[in-house]
Amino acid sequence: MATRIDSHQHFWQPARGDYTWLRADVPVLAPLVRDFMPQDLMPLLEAHDVTQTVLVQAADSQAETDFMLELATAHEFIGGVVGWVDLSRPEAAASLERMARHPKFKGVRPMLQDLPDDDWIVRAPHPDALQALVRLGLRFDALVKPRHLGALLRFLREWPQLPVVIDHAAKPPVGEADGEVFAAWRHRMREIAALPQQVCCKFSGLWTEAPSAMYRDADVVAHAVRPVWEHLLECFGPGRLMWGSDWPVLTLAGDYAGWIAVSEAFIAQLSTGEQAQVWRGTAQRFYDLQPA
Predict the structure, then answer these.
(1) What b-and-e string marks burial along 140-174, b requiring 16 or more CB atoms within 10 Å of the CB?
(2) What does each C-alpha distance from 288 to 105, 203, 280 come to in angstroms?
(3) Domain range holding 111?
(4) Which of 8, 79, 141, 278 lies at a C-alpha separation of 20 to 30 Å from 108?
């Protein structure tokens, strides 16, 4: 069995009040409006030989980042934390310096997909905050959709020294490989992957991007995801792709074992060394994770 690192998972407690997007009155989200904590994930990690995870923010709140860092202190399997600060404010640099004192704080993720300005990433971040990311050796998770990729490309060209990973492959329309949006996604991802600096991509979060008719059916979603995988592999190669679950958001569409089975169908076609890169090596290197 392959040893794995889950490069993208979440924990939350809705009662904390951080998660404004988690609304019980939205039927599709209602199953997520409960606590998801380490004791819920640990049996899945053990069953699938996942030795470490990267815990990623799910709220635009520094308090949630502190909450995640507390969990990382208490649980060895959490290898790194990707938190949140308001990068548009100059005082973000001081917040980053404080968080970076924790050895498991690895970077930040602004919730770009939820912001009203699709060009926020090239207009709003304060240079002091971005320079602090670079100076402190931190990373940037880009939570984007296809419509954001043009702005992200401009940002990457302006900040070539900042390590960036694209979450969930920028959420292409799974199952619509013949459509215009998918074609535009393919073009932009190829442009981004061709940049000289190290930009990585997460193979994660794609089951929930499929039509709801594909939920709970791993075989059907594997067929729909294949064009996404093949393009990512062509553009980024195994050395810049990392596997992640996006648990517990994943549970809206499938389950942990099912997503591993879907991923295995593609990753197993690589050489042994290339498989190790996607399952664990790329995440370990990008986030500078210490061995569990």
Answers:
(1) bbbbbbbebbbbbbebbeebeebbbbbbbbbbbbb
(2) 10, 19, 12
(3) 4-286
(4) 278
Q: What is the pTM of this model?
A: 0.98
Q: Distance between CA atoms of 283 and 244, rounded to whole angstroms?
A: 9
Question: How much of the chain, in percent, has pLDDT values that exceed 70?
Answer: 100
Residue 142 domain-assigned (yes or no): yes
Q: Where is pLDDT greater, at 223 or 292? A: 223
Question: Is there a domain that residue 9 lies in?
Answer: yes
Structurally, how many domains does the chain consist of? Answer: 1
Q: Per the domain annotation, does 292 fall within a domain?
A: no
- What mean pLDDT do residues 104-124 have? 97
What is the pLDDT at residue 1? 52
List the CATH number of the domain containing 51: 3.20.20.140
